[in-house]
Write a structure and sequence with these properties.
With about 325 residues, the protein is α/β, with parallel strands linked by helices. It has eight helices and eleven strands. It has a six-stranded mixed beta sheet. Strands 7-8-9-10-11 form a five-stranded mixed beta sheet, with helices on one face.
Length: about 325
């Protein structure tokens, strides 16, 4: 009798969880128009979760006369399939190319799905090498988060990566430029410039609305070199790796200025022979960046990692 009474409630809860899980990805996969040709999907600002299917980054796609160019392919086969379906709400044209802007898991683990569908995978050799180096680690971490939702995902860097730091390609009537100017969030991060649309897909070179993260493998000086190249391009539209698309001024205020403030502050501490904890404490509060999501979790760690990097690589 008790089981019969509880069964409807259990079924309702399971249905509610399933609906919430589906709805989170549905809301992420609403194409946002930047120009008539350029769209993007705005990932969650939270960390990777089962509910957001580790889709906490931005992807973009561009309409050409000869098909669709997708910039980054998502964190899993299942997400890649859903991305393809979402693109189908805008155009009937197939995804012809996938350009990889970086090496973090959610930027390229959908490559294999699109390659099976006939798309060409395009990446610089620097990017593909880092993908290969981190692949096993990324899949293991995602398996803990996505569990059954990682099924069928295969790590596939670009089969024929480009041995260059700048590479221009054209599909239909749209030109794309892959530009490497320095290792950033991950080694091999690139900018994807779409000059005729006044747009740069900045990947993990730009974080907006949320705090960027410096990892042990990040390079703050290379990151700033990449940001300087972005500034020189003078784009009208910047699609960041995380957060809402914006103009160059906002990109500078929330990424370029932050990186420069960390770099300058840490160099000052090293020049004054400060200990690590003294530099972290001195730079512990930067009020103009406090509005960024995850500031409390990441800011002090960013200072810490920048200090260790610059101390060992003066």
């Amino acid at each position: 009798m008790l089981l019969r009474t509880l069964l409807p409630a259990v079924v309702f809860i399971l249905l509610f969880v399933a609906i919430v899980s589906a709805d989170e990805l549905d809301s992420i996969l609403e194409p946002i128009s930047v120009t008539e040709r350029v769209y993007y999907f705005k990932g969650s600002l939270d960390g990777r979760t089962y509910e957001n299917q580790a889709f906490n980054n931005n992807l973009a796609f561009v309409l050409t006369n000869d098909g669709v160019v997708l910039i980054d392919s998502g964190p899993s086969r299942k997400v890649a399939e859903r991305v393809e379906q979402a693109i189908g709400t805008v155009t009937d044209m197939p995804v012809r190319w996938v350009i990889n802007s970086g090496s973090q898991d959610h930027r390229w683990l959908g490559n294999h799905y699109f390659a099976e569908r006939g798309a060409e995978i395009i990446a610089l050799a620097r990017t593909a090498e880092t993908q290969s180096r981190f692949a096993e680690q990324h899949l293991a971490r995602l398996e803990n988060v996505l569990r059954d939702r990682l099924a069928g995902t295969r790590a596939m860097p670009a089969p024929e990566p480009v041995e260059a730091d700048r590479h221009a390609v054209e599909l239909g009537d749209v030109r794309f430029e892959l530009i490497f100017a320095g290792d950033a969030h991950f080694p091999g991060d690139v900018l994807v410039h779409i000059p005729d649309e006044g747009t740069v897909f900045a990947g993990d070179v730009v974080y907006l609305d949320r705090m960027l993260g410096l990892h042990p493998w990040s390079d703050i000086r290379g990151w700033l070199d990449s940001f300087a190249v972005l500034e020189a391009l003078e784009p009208e539209h910047v699609i960041p790796g995380h957060g809402a698309a914006a103009d160059l001024d906002k990109a500078r205020a929330e990424t370029g200025d932050y990186l420069q403030a960390i770099l300058d502050g840490v160099i000052e501490g090293l020049d004054d022979w400060e200990q690590l904890n003294e530099t972290v404490d001195r730079l512990a509060d930067m009020p103009r960046f406090r509005h960024l999501v995850h500031y409390e979790e990441w800011h002090r760690m960013n200072v810490n990692r920048a200090y260790l990097d610059l101390e060992s690589n003066p």
